[in-house]
Amino acid sequence: MAGFVIPVNKANFEQEVLNADKIVLIDFYADWCGPCKSLAPRLEKYAEDNQDKVKVVKINVDESPALAGAFGVRSIPTLLIFKDGEVVAQTVGSMAKSDLVKWVDGALA
Fold first, then answer.
1. Contact between 23 and 69 (Cβ < 8 Å)
2. Nearest CA to 21 among 55, 57, 68?
3. Active site residues
């Protein structure tokens, strides 16, 4: 899915996440994961609606197992929020767009 959610892997993780100039929401997912597939369009819409304040990226756990392992990802989808290169919030599982907005806003408060 092309659009507002940026694919990230080991090669561009530092540039896209650690050196980002705004909050980064990471979606750890897999192509075969049903809940990940159901969350994807909501994340895309969220990324489009909030592109001025939040960068949304996705990391395929099958293609980047070292990144998933580095952040203790054991279930997918796992969402992490990075601020200034540090994890400030984490949640597991799909969620409604309204819950996603509340969760991100709460983490940024």
1. no
2. 55
3. 33, 36
* 6 pLDDT higher than 70: yes
Query: What CA dihedral angle connects 102, 37, 24 and 1, to 10 degrees?
Result: -130
Pair 42, 98: CB distance under 8 Å: no
Which DSSP state fits 45?
Answer: H
Q: Label residue 2 by pLDDT band (50, 70, 90).
A: low
- Predicted local confidence at residue 1, as pLDDT: 41
Distance of alpha carbon 24 from alpha carbon 81, whole angstroms = 6
pLDDT of 39 reads 96
Q: At which residue do the structure tokens 């990802």 appear?
A: 73
Flag whether pLDDT at 16 surpasses 60. Answer: yes
Which parts of 16-79 fold into alpha helices (H)?
34-49, 65-70
Nearest to 17 by CA among 103, 80, 109, 91: 80
Per-chain mean pLDDT for the chain: 94
